[in-house]
């Protein structure tokens, strides 16, 4: 008997002596490795036969998956060990696996039989060699280089004994006896050969891409499995709404429910035109089926949409689902009394909702604030929602819908996510797989963003922002947001069922002058006059005598009775809005401008008269202005919430006020004089619009489609256009026109047609709105509407893709709104080949246009400064903002921009890895080949140009357990590096999104091996025997990980983040195992 300690004397050396030509070998062990074969190749190729028993079930389909899967993972490891165990990583990293596997498979076909134990009975491992003598080596746990003594492994001691006859006969006989027992053993030779052959067969690039995703994201697959969707037996998948959804929407529904169950909240930030409302309705159906009560909070203008989907009416396509959620407006949260959609606001049980769906949730991005005196604190809408609806009563889940959840601060996102964890960060910290608390995560992210926003504009790229953000931030995004862009859907989903997006033609920019009349005023001259206005009519409190101010503060409180703003700030705010409003109305139409100027002039003249006949009267700002004048976006209406503040003229410096009012009255008088004679026939912009419509109707861009939507920001412009356009279109082409604004009922030229918004839109877009289903029987309507004139009350949440031509009659100052408008026709499932956007711009250069805005805003700031003593004229941030707006508007002139591309600031689509997870999810529905694929596989793919140079993508796994999550690598323990042939790093391991994007770009849809490239690669490497070049590149890739890490460690010494270097040590090659690699040729 001889004992090997596998340090000074090793089993392998002895076997080289004892296995001679013609020997018969039998092995029982837990696993078999091709690297062990490689060590004894010379001897093993000379034997007459080898019988091998896997001592535990291996390559056996488990009979009963329902029983506890105790040996499931180990079994996978045993099968994987064919290509090297975890202690043979170094060998695998030499990349010679392919050549070894090929030789090994040929040898097995000739000389080896494998059988596997199919019982759960235990069996020890040993090797029998029958040659001139009969010898047994035991214990042998696995036939690997570690057990042969070539590698150290993680054994404290690794003693193996060798015994000879007669004692060895017991082992030889037991082996023979078990070998014959077909009940206990099953032949698995074919499976072993097939698995080993997998190593050297050529792979498709597509397969390597999904193998990478499977290794990195397979935990996500376990997460999303419907088992964790509580109670999926609710039957919501047989509902009408579920069956109306496209595949990408169904994926989102399951992911949302998963996130709501796990984190209590989710933001669905899919891009414009991807049907967020329908996705949300399916989520609502799921919860209503579980008997939960649901509240939808939406802006007023989207009310009709939401009400229709829950009503028992013929034009509700999902009426059979009998949804029963409540609908309230965002603004209802600020109201204490009255009713809304039939619900009495003073008696509503706010705390009883299990799910709140917030449409256009970015309106809540500014977070919570309280206003008012200490003894009478008022909460803003956000706090009311948080305290009354979410914290009180039952546990409330929150689903937020917004295509723009981030404006220009990450805190926008934090404030929305905070609704899900009730503003108590510890509630979500426990659930997230992050090191820092959520408050710290956003603080760091905002600091990173602030730093980035100070970069020069050419440095302000998404990539540079990603570099600054850390692991935890992406973890939060991945946990609670779902954001897909239109490009993403087109790229990663089979869109046959959906239909494709239409092709966007280059936008047409039209710059009509105000009028063609001789000697008439032009835009610039009007702007000059506008800038001189001081609009003191809106700031009466600025003229109160100092000696009287205290009385008003005592009477109304220091905020002068306003709940949200100090009175002076509020008045300045309203004045600034009114000034900008005049500009916007001029850009909209002469008619709208004329009406507004007349209105303000009448107000000023009445006030002048009041002052001149001073009879101890009082002035009241509330009577001067209402939010209807401004047609504001929803979030500004808080300016108009407050008690009526009355100021006695006797308490005011009326002389100064009178002087300022008269100056304004004169300027307005001049303006009216110039614009009064611009009648419709002289209104050059209106005439240009009629020519544009004429051209479109006579030369349609899709078949015979004559439909056009005309958007304007103001209802008086819309009414003016309707008066003029409808007559012209009816008389010239006998087509019908309709008008929809938020403030008055719709109007149409169709006789006896109901004028409600739904009917009008259904006649305008009969296919997308399913007119045949909805307006039939006694409600049947055949009349088509071809021209629709509308305000932004329909710029969100409407599907009008029957139309292929959209005109912005005025350019909204917020470019996002322009994209949202276009999203009405630029939608998935459009039947139009192409769609056209037409923008009417003021007759100015873009520079003049932007400078003008700057002057108006600065002018208003100066006057605020004089009234408040605040010397902040126009901040750097706003200067940057105007620059940035200029860039956005410049782009809008040349192309139709996606929302996520528009915000050269932050798009959360650039940040998440969700699309790769969903990619994998889709693949795994039909393919399971990646689950058992060996490590170390590769494919060869051709370069697609300069951004994908020749080189290699290495996908590695860090195996030294001592390494903590590296603060920068979001995929830890997986590391991906793309290195070029000349050893330059194309993508390092801390930009996995870019690396995966490039990998997908090269691999997707290459579902067959690229045989020509494979032949070249095999020739270059002598069929995998000469892998030195690629082994060297792998070493460089690993050292780049260490190098980037060291650089980061150095940096972390110099900033206030926790130092990473103490925690993490990476040694080099043996710390990583190669999962797979992709060679770019």
Description:
- The protein has 1081 residues and is of the alpha/beta class.
- Helix content is 42%, strand content 13%.
- The protein has 38 helices and 33 strands.
- The strands form seven sheets. The protein has an eight-stranded mixed sheet. Strands 19, 20, 23, 24, 25, 26, 27 and 28 form an eight-stranded mixed sheet that branches. A six-stranded parallel sheet has the order 11-10-14-17-9-18.
- Helix 6 (97-111) packs antiparallel against helix 8 (189-200).
- The chain is elongated.
- The two termini are 56 Å apart.
- Mean pLDDT is 80; it is low at 62-74, 559-565, 632-643, 860-880, 962-966 and 1049-1066.
Helix/sheet category: alpha/beta
**Oligomeric state of shown chains:** single chain
Task: Tally the helices.
Answer: 38
Summarize the biggest pleated sheet. 8 strands, mixed
Q: Tell me, what's the shape? A: elongated
Q: How helix-rich are the residues, as a percent range? A: 40-55%
Rg computed from alpha carbons, rounded to a whole number of angstroms: 37 Å
Number of strands: 33
Strand order of the largest sheet: 1-7-6-5-2-3-4-8
Poorly predicted runs are 62-74, 559-565, 632-643, 860-880, 962-966, 1049-1066
- Calculate the mean pLDDT score and round it: 80
Proportion of residues in β-strands: 5-15%
Distance between the termini: 56 Å
């Amino acid at each position: 008997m001889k004992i090997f300690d596998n340090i000074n004397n090793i089993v392998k050396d002895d076997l080289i002596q004892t296995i001679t030509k013609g020997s018969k070998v039998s092995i029982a062990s837990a696993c078999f490795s091709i690297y062990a074969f490689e060590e004894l190749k010379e001897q093993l190729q000379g034997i007459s036969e080898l019988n091998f028993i896997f001592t535990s079930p291996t390559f056996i389909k488990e009979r009963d998956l329902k029983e506890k899967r105790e040996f499931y993972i180990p079994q996978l490891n045993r099968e994987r060990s064919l290509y090297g165990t975890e202690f043979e990583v170094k060998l695998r990293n030499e990349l010679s696996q392919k050549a070894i596997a090929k030789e090994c498979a040929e040898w097995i076909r000739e000389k080896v039989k494998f059988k596997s134990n199919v019982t759960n009975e235990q069996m020890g491992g040993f090797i029998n060699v029958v040659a001139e003598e009969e010898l047994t080596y035991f214990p042998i746990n696995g036939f690997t280089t570690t057990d042969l003594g070539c590698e150290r492994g993680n054994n404290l001691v690794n003693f193996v004994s060798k015994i000879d006859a007669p004692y060895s006969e017991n082992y030889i006989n037991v082996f023979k006896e078990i070998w014959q027992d077909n009940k206990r053993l099953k032949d698995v030779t074919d499976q072993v050969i097939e698995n080993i052959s997998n190593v050297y067969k050529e792979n498709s690039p597509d397969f390597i891409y999904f193998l990478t995703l499977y290794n990195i994201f397979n935990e996500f697959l376990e997460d999303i499995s419907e088992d964790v969707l509580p109670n999926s037996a609710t039957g919501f998948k047989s509902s009408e709404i579920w069956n109306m959804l496209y595949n990408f929407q169904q994926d989102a529904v399951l992911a949302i429910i998963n996130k709501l169950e796990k984190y209590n909240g989710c933001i669905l930030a899919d891009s414009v035109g991807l049907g967020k409302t329908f996705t949300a309705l399916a989520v609502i159906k799921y919860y209503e089926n579980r008997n939960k009560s649901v509240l939808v909070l939406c802006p007023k203008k989207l009310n009709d949409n939401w009400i229709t989907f829950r009503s028992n009416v013929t034009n509700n396509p999902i009426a059979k689902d009998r949804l029963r959620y409540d609908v309230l407006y965002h603004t209802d949260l600020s109201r204490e009394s009255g009713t809304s959609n039939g619900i009495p606001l003073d008696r509503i049980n706010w705390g009883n909702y299990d799910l709140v769906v917030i449409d256009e949730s970015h309106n809540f991005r500014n977070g919570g604030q309280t206003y008012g005196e200490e003894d009478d604190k008022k909460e803003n809408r956000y706090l009311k929602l948080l305290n009354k609806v979410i914290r009180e009563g039952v546990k409330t889940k929150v689903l937020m819908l917004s295509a723009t959840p981030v404006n220009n601060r990450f805190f926008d996102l934090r404030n929305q996510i905070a609704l899900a964890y009730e503003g108590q960060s510890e509630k979500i910290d426990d659930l997230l797989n992050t090191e820092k608390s959520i408050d710290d995560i956003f603080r760091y992210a905002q600091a990173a963003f602030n730093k980035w926003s100070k970069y020069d504009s050419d440095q302000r790229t998404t990539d540079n922002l990603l570099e600054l953000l850390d692991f935890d931030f992406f973890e939060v995004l991945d946990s609670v947001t779902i954001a897909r862009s239109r490009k993403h859907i087109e790229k990663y989903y089979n869109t046959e069922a959906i239909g494709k997006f239409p092709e966007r033609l280059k936008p047409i920019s039209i710059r009509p002058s105000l009028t063609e009349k001789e000697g008439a005023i032009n835009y610039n001259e009007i702007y000059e006059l506008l800038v001189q206005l001081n609009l003191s009519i809106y700031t009466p409190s600025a003229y109160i005598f100092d000696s009287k101010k205290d009385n008003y503060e005592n009477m109304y409180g220091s905020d002068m009775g306003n709940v949200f703003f100090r009175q002076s700030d509020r008045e300045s705010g309203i004045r600034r809005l009114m000034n900008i409003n005049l500009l916007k109305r001029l850009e909209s139409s002469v008619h709208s401008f004329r009406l507004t100027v007349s209105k303000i002039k009448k107000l000023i003249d009445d006030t002048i008269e009041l002052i001149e006949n001073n009879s101890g009267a009082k002035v009241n700002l509330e009577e001067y202005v209402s939010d209807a004048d401004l047609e504001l976006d929803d979030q500004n209406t808080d300016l108009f919430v407050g008690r009526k503040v009355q100021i006695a003229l006797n308490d005011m410096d009326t002389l100064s006020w009178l002087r300022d009012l008269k100056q304004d009255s004169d300027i307005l008088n001049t303006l009216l004089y110039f614009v009064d004679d611009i009648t419709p026939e002289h209104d050059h912009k209106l005439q240009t619009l009629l020519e544009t419509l004429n051209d479109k109707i006579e030369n349609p861009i899709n078949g015979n489609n004559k439909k056009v939507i005309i958007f304007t920001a103001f209802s008086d412009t819309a009414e003016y256009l309707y008066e003029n356009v409808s007559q012209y279109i009816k008389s010239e082409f006998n087509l019908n026109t309709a008008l929809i604004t938020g403030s008055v009922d719709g109007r149409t030229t169709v006789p006896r047609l109901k004028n409600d918004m739904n009917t009008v839109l259904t006649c305008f877009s009969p296919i997308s709105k399913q007119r045949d289903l909805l307006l039939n029987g006694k409600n049947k309507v055949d009349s088509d509407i071809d021209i629709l004139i509308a305000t932004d009350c329909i710029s969100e949440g409407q599907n009008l893709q029957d139309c292929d031509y959209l005109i912005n009659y005025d350019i909204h100052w917020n470019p996002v709104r322009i994209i949202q408008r276009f999203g009405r026709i630029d939608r998935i499932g459009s039947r139009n080949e192409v769609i056209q956007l037409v923008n009417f711009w003021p007759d100015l250069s873009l520079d003049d246009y932007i400078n003008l805005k700057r002057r108006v805003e600065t002018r208003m700031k100066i006057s605020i400064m004089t009234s408040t003593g605040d010397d902040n004229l126009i901040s750097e941030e706003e200067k940057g903002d105007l620059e940035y707006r200029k860039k956005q508007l410049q782009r809008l002139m040349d192309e139709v921009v996606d929302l996520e591309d528009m915000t050269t600031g932050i798009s959360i689509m650039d940040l998440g890895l969700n699309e790769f997870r969903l990619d994998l999810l889709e693949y795994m529905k039909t393919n399971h080949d990646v689950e058992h694929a060996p490590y170390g596989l590769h494919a060869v793919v051709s370069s697609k140009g300069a951004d994908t140079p020749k080189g290699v993508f290495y996908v590695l796994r860090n195996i030294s357990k001592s390494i903590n999550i590296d603060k920068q690598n979001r995929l830890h323990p997986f590391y991906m590096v793309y290195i070029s042939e000349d050893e330059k790093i194309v993508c390092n391991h801390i930009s996995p999104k870019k690396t995966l994007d490039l990998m997908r770009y090269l691999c997707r849809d290459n579902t067959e091996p690229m045989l020509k490239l494979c032949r070249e690669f095999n020739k270059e490497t002598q069929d995998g025997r000469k892998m030195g070049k690629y082994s060297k590149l792998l070493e460089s890739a690993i050292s780049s990980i260490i190098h980037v890490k060291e650089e980061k460690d150095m940096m972390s010494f110099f900033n206030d983040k926790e130092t990473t270097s103490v925690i993490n040590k990476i040694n080099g090659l043996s710390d990583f195992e190669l999962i797979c690699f992709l060679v770019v040729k």
